Amino acid sequence: MGRTWHILGAGSLGGLWAARLYRAGIPLRIILRNQERLADYQGAGGLTLVENQGSILYPVPAERPDAAAPIARLLVACKAYDAQAAIAEVAPRLVEGAEILLLQNGLGSQQAVAARWPDSHCVLVSSTEGAYRQAGWRIVHAGQGQNWLGTLGHDHAPAWLADLDAAGIPFAWTDAIMSKLWRKLAINCAINPLSVLYDCRNGALLAHRAELLEICAELNAVLRACDQGAAAEGLAEEVFRVIEATANNYCSMHQDVRSGRRTEVGFLLGQACRTAQAQGLDVPKLNALLDQLQALLRQRGLPED
Ligand code: NAD
Ligand code: KPL
Question: Is 184 known to be catalytic?
C-alpha cells in the first residue's frame, strides 16, 4: 500500500483499472505516449468511465514517459505486441525491484519482459473483464470478470493487493498463473481464428462442431506436452460453454480485423504453433488454421504476428 501506481497504456483495460483505483483514492498516474496525447487527454479533463448506465469523469493525473519521478509499480496495459517497446520508454525510471504487472493476453510477451528487465519483479495477470473504448477518453466497462494474478516464481500474495480490494477490482492471487494464461490462450485459439475465417459471431461456430473438436484435441496435446495438464482438462467442453455464453458476440480478434487493427495472433495461435514445434508435436490443424488466418491478415494489409 502507499506506493504510487503508474499505468502504461490508458486504453480499454488500463483506463478501467485507472478509473477504479483513482476513485478509491489510490495514488496513481497514467503514462501517455507523447506530448500530443497528453495535451489531448488534458483537454478532455480526464478519463470517463461508463458503467451501470451512468458515466463519470475522473481527472486521473497523467504524464509523459520521460517524466522524472521513479516508478516502483508499473501496470502495463498495452497490447502484447507493444508491451516491450512501451516499457523500454520508461525503463530508466524503474527502481530496482520494481513491480511490473503485465495485463497482456496470450503468452510470450510476459516472458520477454521478465528476461529483458531481470531486476524487476513481474506479476502476470489473466483478465476476463471486458472493456472497450468509445471516442476519445471514454471507456465502457462492458463485462464483469476476474483478474488472476501470480508470478513465475510462485511468490506469496503481496500486501499491495489491498489496493485492488479498496478499488473494487475483482482479483484472486494464484500460484498457477501459467495454467490460467494457457487455458485462456487455448480457448482464444479455438474460437477466435475460426470466427475470423468464417466471419461470424461466436454462436455460429456451433455449426462447425467437428472442426472445433479437432482444434481442441490438438490444443489439448500442446498443453499436455508443456506440462499444462490442468489447463487441458475439459477444454472442449469449456470452449462450447464459452461459445454458448457469448453466442451473440463477435470475439475480440474478429472486432480487431473488422476495424483494421493489428491482432495479437502471434501471442495466441502463433504461440501455440511455436510451442508445438519446440515440443516436436505434429499439429496439422493448428498450423493450417494459422496459415489461413495469416493469409487473410495479409490480404487485409494487417501484420501477420
Ligand atoms: P487498447 O488498445 O484499448 O489499449 C492499449 C493502450 O496502450 C492504447 O491506448 C495505446 O495507445 C497504448 N499504448 C501502446 N503503446 C504505448 C506506449 N509506448 N506508451 C503509452 N501507451 C501505449 O487495448 P486493451 O483492449 O486495453 O488490451 C490491453 C491488453 O489486455 C491486451 O493484451 C488484451 O488482449 C488484454 N485484454 C483486454 C480485454 C478488454 O476487454 N479490452 C480483456 C482481457 C484482456
Ligand atoms: O476472450 C474472448 C475474446 O473475444 O477474445 C472470448 C469471448 C472468450 C472468445 O475467445
Answer: yes
Residue nearest to atom 27 of ligand 1 (CA): 79
Tens place of pLDDT for every residue, the chain, 305 residues?
Answer: 448 999 999 999 999 999 999 999 999 999 999 999 999 999 999 999 999 889 999 999 999 999 999 999 999 999 999 999 999 999 999 999 999 999 999 999 999 999 999 999 999 999 999 999 998 899 999 999 999 999 998 789 999 999 999 999 999 999 999 999 999 999 999 999 999 999 999 999 999 999 999 999 999 999 999 999 999 999 999 999 999 999 999 999 999 999 999 999 999 999 999 999 999 999 999 999 999 999 999 999 999 99
Nearest-atom number in ligand 1 for the CA of 103 is 30
Distance 255 CA to ligand 1 centre (A): 14
**Cα(171) to centroid of ligand 1, in Å?**
19
Per DSSP, helices labelled H in 198-268 are 209-225, 229-232, 235-245, 252-258
Ligand 1, atom 36, residue with closest C-alpha: 105
Alpha-carbon gap, residue 251 to 87, rounded angstroms: 28
Q: Which atom of ligand 1 is nearest to the CA of 65?
A: 19
Q: Are 78 and 33 in contact (CB under 8 A)?
A: no
The residue whose grid cell reads 511455436 is 274
Q: 0.85 cut: is pTM over it?
A: yes
